[in-house]
UniProtKB/TrEMBL annotation:
CDD domains: AAA (cd00009), Bac_DnaA_C (cd06571)
Record remark on domains: Domain I is involved in oligomerization and binding regulators, domain II is flexibile and of varying length in different bacteria, domain III forms the AAA+ region, while domain IV binds dsDNA.
Subunit details: Oligomerizes as a right-handed, spiral filament on DNA at oriC.
Cited function: Plays an essential role in the initiation and regulation of chromosomal replication. ATP-DnaA binds to the origin of replication (oriC) to initiate formation of the DNA replication initiation complex once per cell cycle. Binds the DnaA box (a 9 base pair repeat at the origin) and separates the double-stranded (ds)DNA. Forms a right-handed helical filament on oriC DNA; dsDNA binds to the exterior of the filament while single-stranded (ss)DNA is stabiized in the filament's interior.
Region (Domain IV, binds dsDNA): 351-473
The entry's keywords: ATP-binding, Cytoplasm, DNA replication, DNA-binding, Lipid-binding, Nucleotide-binding
Protein family per UniProt: Belongs to the DnaA family.
Species of provenance: Algoriphagus halophytocola
Gene designation per UniProt: dnaA
Subcellular location field: Cytoplasm
Protein name as it appears in the record: Chromosomal replication initiator protein DnaA
Residues covered by region (Domain I, interacts with DnaA modulators): 1-108
Residues at which ATP binds: G178, G180, K181, T182
Length: 473
């Protein structure tokens, strides 16, 4: 490294630093080493062909300005690119900048152009327009709407009607495992794909996106990878949280996102949490995720679970008794995926055993799948169910605390112990921190009185009562 080249490049860096952000400067300019200065031609060494292509594609104007400012109008920049040739020794070759400069000297010929990848598409053909990685069964027709997902579904349908035009761009759908994120975003994709306009819709998991990007770096096809994704009309990327910690992939996605958004193309993403809680992602990405609409999916309520079960049974051409539907809906209150899995198991058991689907069969199947399921309504089950319903700790039901919300939950639990168990009043009081029988009598009286005067309280008690009745069948 000559001192002249080093001094000139340091001047160039001072100019460049004023026109790019700190992270880009650290990522794309600090690793560059000045090699030599011949007249007004500066040669710099970059670590890879990918690095060189990225500078050419994204920072040409900044480099032009730096060279012009430092070396004048006749200044030139050449790259010494270290190319990995497998088992052979790395042999750098020089690519002149500008590329049409016929006076460039090459130390070695650049490697032969690699075979085209699936991403390298100068235009979108019919096959590309149909291969969107979408599951055709995921539609709005098969997506059950409820209070738990109404906002997300409504926004999704608006996006499907006018992709890239609404203010819901990007659309971020987040929620826990098995709540229907993938179903919803693919329903949007299928609606657009089957619409009157010919749109290139692409669904991809973030894991696949990362793997494709890594393969493109390895094969020297980063530009082809970028060109492919920049031609998409609707990009649906699932589980965006898995980009956390992958800085180079985030850099690439940032530029693809910007291009698509500026071109009024639709971007749809899913995540397991809202953008503000995503860790390991660049702030500039997170800020862009907040440009459009963020909608959450919650655990389905009882009515929605019933509708899901009935729709699933209808699609399978099977009819099951209402008591079985209610039992399953009350028992499986975690997520849609688990509920559908249990339905499949129930259908399989009935088919293989050649028996009708009944409540007894449903309980047997549930007992085999969910190990901690309780088959009887006892004091412990009532306490656990009531505490979960009111969102309080189980120990608080037995404690001496007199907080209103805990007292109410405790009285409701005592009321149900009186109705659904054979325990004496004294025994029930014992299970609630050693209280006496008069406390239990007071609790039952208070619950009955509140049910007559408070409709919301009455609805809560009735909902819990249905759950206990299903257990006692």
């Amino acid at each position: 490294m000559s001192s002249e080249a080093s001094a000139v490049w340091n001047e160039c860096l001072r100019v460049i630093e004023q026109h790019v952000n700190e992270q880009s400067f650290s990522t794309w300019f600090k690793p560059i080493n000045p090699v030599k200065l011949e007249g007004t031609s500066l040669t710099i060494q970059v670590p890879s062909q990918f690095f060189y292509e990225w500078l050419e594609d994204n920072y040409v104007q900044e480099l032009k300005l730096a060279i012009k400012t430092t070396l004048g109008h006749g200044g030139r920049l050449e790259y010494a690119v270290v190319v990995d040739r497998g088992n052979s020794a790395n042999q750098p070759y020089v690519v002149s900048y500008p590329q049409n400069n016929s006076g460039a000297k090459k130390a070695a010929a650049p490697p032969a152009e690699p075979d085209k990848t699936p991403f390298e598409m100068k235009s979108l053909d019919a096959e590309a327009l149909t291969n969107s990685n979408l599951n055709p069964t995921y539609t709005f027709t098969t997506y059950i709407e409820g209070d738990c997902n109404r906002l997300a579904r409504s926004a999704g349908f608006a996006v499907a009607t006018k992709p890239g035009i609404t203010s819901f761009n990007p659309l971020m759908v987040y929620g826990g495992v098995g709540l229907g994120k993938t179903h919803l975003v693919q329903a949007i994709g299928n609606e657009i794909k089957n619409g009157p306009e010919e749109k290139f819709v692409l669904y991809v998991s973030s894991e696949k996106f990362v793997n494709q990007f890594m393969d493109s770096i390895k094969d020297g096809n980063v530009k082809s990878f970028t060109n492919f994704y920049m031609q998409v009309d609707v990009l649906i990327i699932d589980d965006i949280q898995f980009l956390a910690g992958k800085d180079r992939t985030q850099e690439m996605f940032f530029h693809i996102f910007n291009h698509l958004h500026q071109s009024k193309k639709q971007i749809i993403m899913t995540s397991d949490c809202p953008p503000r809680d995503l860790k390991g992602l660049e702030e500039r990405l997170l800020s862009r995720f907040k440009w459009g609409l963020t909608a959450d999916l919650q655990m389905p309520d009882f009515e929605t679970r019933v509708a899901i079960i009935r729709r699933k049974m209808q699609s399978e051409g099977i009819v099951i008794p209402d008591d079985v539907v209610e039992y399953l809906a009350y028992t499986v209150d975690t997520n849609v995926r688990e509920l559908e899995g249990i339905l499949i198991s129930l259908i399989a058991h009935a088919s293989l055993s050649r028996v009708e689907i009944s409540l007894e069969l449903a309980k047997t199947v549930m007992k085999n799948i969910i190990k901690d399921i309780e088959t009887e309504v006892g004091v412990d089950f009532i306490q656990k169910t009531v505490s979960e319903y009111y969102g309080i700790k189980l120990d608080d039901l037995k404690a001496k605390t007199r907080k209103k919300e805990i007292v109410t939950a405790r009285q409701v639990a005592m009321y149900f112990c009186k109705e659904f168990t054979n325990h004496s009043l004294k025994s029930i009081g014992y299970h609630f921190g050693g209280r006496d029988h008069s406390t239990v009598i007071h609790a039952v009286t208070m619950v009955n009185d509140l049910m007559e005067t408070d409709s919301s309280f009455r609805n809560a008690v009735q909902e819990l009562k249905k759950k206990f009745k299903m257990r006692s069948y």
